Amino acid sequence: MSSTDDPRDSSLEVRFTLPPSWSTDGSDGFSAVSMLIAGAVMVTRNRFLAWPALLFGISSFFNQHPLRTKDVGPSWQSLISGLSALVISYLPMVLIARGPAQVPITPAP
């Protein structure tokens, strides 16, 4: 066995560096899509779009890179917007709607 192939050799140690993809500037696509879909849900009240908005928000929250948070912003915004879109779309099913108010008719004096 040659000395260059020995993994225990201290001269072959390499300093740890972060992957180059972490240090590049770029926006988080899941966060942008989550906020876009959440905005569409709030405008159209489409319940079926609220679930993908929440899933994209969760995905962007768990896949955030520690070096990108200062450039892109926190992913809490996309998570909260996805959750609020889900709540707003299902809120009319929970609330009790009142009927139109009846105005009493009084005879003229």
UniProtKB/TrEMBL annotation:
<dbReference type="InterPro" id="IPR005351">
    <property type="entry name" value="ASTER"/>
</dbReference>
<keyword id="KW-0812">Transmembrane</keyword>
<feature type="transmembrane region" description="Helical">
    <location>
        <begin position="79"/>
        <end position="97"/>
    </location>
</feature>
<feature type="transmembrane region" description="Helical">
    <location>
        <begin position="48"/>
        <end position="67"/>
    </location>
</feature>
<dbReference type="GO" id="GO:0005789">
    <property type="term" value="C:endoplasmic reticulum membrane"/>
</dbReference>
<dbReference type="Pfam" id="PF03669">
    <property type="entry name" value="ASTER"/>
</dbReference>
<protein>
    <submittedName>
        <fullName>Uncharacterized protein</fullName>
    </submittedName>
</protein>
<dbReference type="GO" id="GO:0044183">
    <property type="term" value="F:protein folding chaperone"/>
</dbReference>
<dbReference type="GO" id="GO:0045048">
    <property type="term" value="P:protein insertion into ER membrane"/>
</dbReference>
<keyword id="KW-0472">Membrane</keyword>
<keyword id="KW-1133">Transmembrane helix</keyword>
